Automatic annotation (TrEMBL):
Species classification: Bacteria, Pseudomonadati, Pseudomonadota, Alphaproteobacteria, Rhodospirillales
Protein name stated in the entry: SH3 domain-containing protein
Source organism, top-level taxon: Bacteria
Domain SH3b, residue spans: 265-329
Entry-linked InterPro entries: SH3-like_bac-type
The organism of origin for this protein: Hwanghaeella grinnelliae
């Protein structure tokens, strides 16, 4: 039987005063949720709205005539993923909060507890749910590790989708401008088309900002879980503290070096000959660039049926044939892991594959934060482009 210590989880994540958490010492998670959904009018209503809330998160439809529709749809699918994740945690948190409120003060306490629990859901709800499902500590650790891996993968997916949207929107802008320059479009026609692309780009930026916000909320769920799980693991606790310090450094310093020699050798590839960079992993995909022989590019994901996703030095993204790539053999700026200026890369890449599960969870979780920061910087670039790229005079 597994339990959640609500005094520890809710007290830490919400900063509630001790008198609000001291009575919630050990509550059986399954009974807590079941009692909430079946035993009170308030939370029966809350539980009945879970499905409705999820149904309301339908992916926004992209216009059929949008040339960048596929990438834009992928971006909205990523938004749907992160929206659903947060609602599930918040509902569980509200359930726990209402039961805790009932323990403290009866009916009125339940109402207050639901409000408190809803706010704490992003921290305690996820951990409570996973504890309820796990048969022992080892299973809980492995599940949270797998969840962190999946979460980081989804962040990478969202970043890649926004990169593709950005590349497509800017390419469309250049095409329209070229058609105007060659007389295929009048000025009025061209600017009208550019206005449409700008509006769509603005919508994409709104979506990616929403995704970023949800990523941050979800991250707090994982931090709460990992912090609790690592209380008796000095290595994982120390790594978590260093990772948090490194993240703070990188938010403050956009120009911070975020790679080590080992990170570059794993993430960079070199073309053995001139390679077409394509929008899709196929020989029929549109050509979006050229990776010249002997030139390095950043590998942004795993091989996809013989095609590797890469990012070129100019920031554009696409796919190249894997068989013509080799590992990067150059040297990279060394990063002193003992430096006061820690980076996320130096922290996460310092963890070996045979480290314990809690420590590896911290590492993979903060690999996701690297991509989250990258997403933020790409969004800032997109906002600057938005004001100039879609004007004939820009």
């Amino acid at each position: 039987m597994t339990f959640i210590d609500t005094r520890r989880v809710l007290g830490r994540t919400t900063g509630l005063p001790y008198f609000l958490t001291r009575t919630g010492r050990r509550l059986n998670a399954r009974k807590l949720i079941s009692a909430a959904c079946l035993g009170t009018t308030l939370l029966t209503s809350a539980c009945q709205t879970v499905e409705g809330l999820s149904n309301d998160l339908g992916i926004q439809q992209v216009s059929k005539d949008d040339a960048c529709g596929q990438a834009s749809t992928e971006l909205r699918e990523a938004q749907g993923y992160f929206e659903r994740s947060i609602i599930q945690g918040a509902v569980i948190g509200a359930v726990g909060g209402a039961i805790l409120g009932g323990i403290l003060g009866g009916g009125d306490g339940a109402l207050a507890g639901a409000a408190v629990g809803g706010a704490a859901g992003a921290g305690g709800g996820y951990l409570a749910a996973r504890q309820n499902e796990a048969s022992d500590r080892s299973e809980l650790n492995n599940t949270v590790y797998q969840d962190a891996q999946s979460e980081t993968g989804e962040i990478v997916r969202a970043l890649a989708a926004f990169n593709r949207v950005r590349d497509c929107r800017l390419a469309r802008s250049e095409t329209i401008k070229q058609q105007f320059a060659t007389g295929q479009l009048t000025r009025e026609q061209a600017q009208k088309m550019l206005d449409v692309e700008k509006r769509r780009y603005s919508d994409d930026i709104v979506v990616v900002k929403a995704i970023a916000g949800k990523i941050d909320e979800r991250h707090q769920e994982f931090v709460t879980a990992v912090d609790t799980m690592a209380e008796d693991n000095p290595e994982a606790s120390a790594l978590l503290a260093r990772a948090q310090e490194a993240e703070e450094n990188e938010w403050k310093n956009p120009d911070a070096v975020a790679t080590t020699g080992s990170a570059v050798s794993q993430d960079m590839v070199v073309a053995s000959t001139n390679l077409n960079v394509r929008a899709e992993p196929s020989t029929t995909g549109a050509k979006v660039g050229l990776l010249e022989g002997g030139t390095a590019a950043l590998r942004t994901g795993p091989d996809q049926d013989g095609w590797t996703p890469v990012q070129l030095a100019n920031g554009s993204n696409g796919f190249v044939a894997t068989q013509y790539l080799s590992g990067y053999e150059g040297s990279a700026p060394a990063v002193n892991n003992q430096s006061d200026e820690l980076t996320l890369a130096s922290v996460t890449r310092s963890v070996s594959s045979d480290a314990d599960t809690e420590t590896r969870t911290v590492a993979v979780l903060y690999e996701g934060r690297e991509k989250r920061i990258e997403l933020d910087r790409l969004t800032q670039t997109a906002e600057q482009e938005e004001n100039t790229a879609f004007s004939l005079d820009g």
